[in-house]
Predict the structure.
Amino acid sequence: MDIKINHIAKMEGHTGFMASVVKGDVKSAKLEVQEGIRLIEGVLIGRHYADMPIVAQRICGICPVVHNLTSIKALENAMKVQATPETKKLREIMELGQIIHSHALHLFFLSLADFLDIDNDIQLIKEYPEETKKAVRIREFGMAIVKVIGGRVVHPLTNEVGGFKKAPNEEDLRKIVADSEGVLKEALELAEFFKTIKIPDFSRVTEYVCLGKRPNYSIYDGDIVFSKGLHIPVRKFEDNFQELQKQNEVIKKVVHAGKSYMIGAIARVNINHSKLNPYAQNYLESLNWKFPDFNPFHNILAQMVEIIHSIEESAKLLKEFLNSDLNEVVTKPYKVREGVGVAAVEAPRGTLYYHVEVDAKGYIKNVNIITPTAQFLANLEDDIMEYIPGILDLKNKDRERKLRAFIRAYDPCISCAVH
Amino acid sequence: MEHRKNFFKPKVAIVSLTSCEGCQFALLDLGERFLDFANKIEMMDFRLIEDEEDAGLKLDIGIVEGTPITEDNVKTLQELRKRSKILVVLGNCAAMGGIPEIKNYHEGVNTIKHVYKYIHGISNPEIKEVDNFVKVDFTFPGCPINAEEFLKYMPEILEGRIPQIPDQPVCVECKAAGNKCLLLENKPCFGPMILGGCNAVCPTSRMGCQGCRGLRPKGKVTAMRQALKRMMTDEEFENTTEIYGLRDDVEERIKSEK
């Protein structure tokens, strides 16, 4: 028997799904990617480094901030440019804003309807008006952070190698801090609602990977940490993870020691939960998970945990930032130098990795971008192989609904994965 | 009852080809104002918010974002044109080729060799804008689009009329925003030759305009090029015009100005 889904909506990018089952045995399960190739790494070669953050962020309309920041960090490492502590803090705040609005979009507008048996968001909004308002306000809070710092939500403008073209407006930042308390309250209420939805019981042991080994819950900086104990510096990334391309495939799936692994909110919460802020910590405890927790559907709740954490964290960092000299973020002159640089930042969907080589005049010689979805795709397919036998007895339509819900819970971004 | 209520609402579909989908997110990011817009129409397809299969019915307005790269993309685009009375294009990729078009100016289809080991069976065409495949009735320019502009012109389009974006440079809104002119600081900015309507969002962030909205009809490219020579080399100018697929339009305009 073949299980085929032509097109999975409510996620970023274009993909279908295909599985083959023989006498109850799942022989294969695979996303059938329908996204075109934009060859972002290829078009960057030969271009001036200043173009890179501008071009690279256009890989993704949901998470441009993280592509922008990771490319800037990699370039700074390649040319040995030092950003000020204020700049690093402001970038981290921006990434927290990115995580808040991306998670709010995914857990409420893309995934939630799956667990309430609703087919479209117009109906979801009608049936859950109060929850919708809260989700919209959380999302708008995250977007406001990105807009005030970056100048625009989709494809921000102020960030560059060395710092920012312009310091953010102090009053606008104070308003975000003032709003944070109310938004945190709404997030906690929405989080209670998410506890009432029925999440399927399924789990499969895997390995989790994310940034860590820092005093805080790592987002902007850290070493690569594995749930089974290994940790490596970011510069060893390509020695430990292998990109594999098969004939006719446009996503290079990534494996570690020949095996699939999982990244993103659920990986971060599993590895770094002891470093969460107090309200996020409380909420996580109320979920009664036993760590490690291997239910991939819990990714949605892990995103809820991270929304709470990121609201707390962004308010805290903004208060610190407002006590410093805001103009310290404005780019100071630096020297263009030949070099190789790598960097990793936690994107909403997991660790994003960039490698760049620049010549003495600042032109790019080589680029490699390894996106979160390319990393967890093999894990998604391994999970689905085990998930299918439990839903084989369902009617076609119900089984298809379960599979869509499963794939969406992962929050894949096919635009990023192909790029 | 629901069906009757929808009877007189214009039927609209929002479809994406290969892209970052940032233009669709710019719309979603309008929040309640986008929902107000959605209430005035019958949304036949918008896959970011609904799971139901598109039934392929006739449309009053088809809206498309992205670059036609795969064969599926081209088919989707052609079918959308056939179904729609008015075809509206969203954003720089569809209108001008966008980031993927950079390859046309350099290694072309060979760019793929930097990215993939196995290239057999992967669609890798030269990048062509949407209007090379189908007739386009209206374009919302920009990377991404200015969602305010979408709200401003859509009511007209929903009534079946094609709006005209005024031929004014980015500079008009830039001055109105109270910005210091970047060109006066010797910082490259394409503002004077580029079609305004973006609220000068880039110069307001002290980022020079790189032309994502395209040349304005009366933009003087030769003169602009001359003025920029003080602050950027020919190569830098050319490179910058490539980011948003502007280079071919600039070359054509310079010829016609001779």
User: Anything to note?
Assistant: The longest strand of chain B covers residues 59-65. Residues 2-158 of chain B form a domain with the Rossmann fold fold (CATH 3.40.50.700). The mean pLDDT of chain B is 95. Chain B has two domains: 2-158, 170-257.
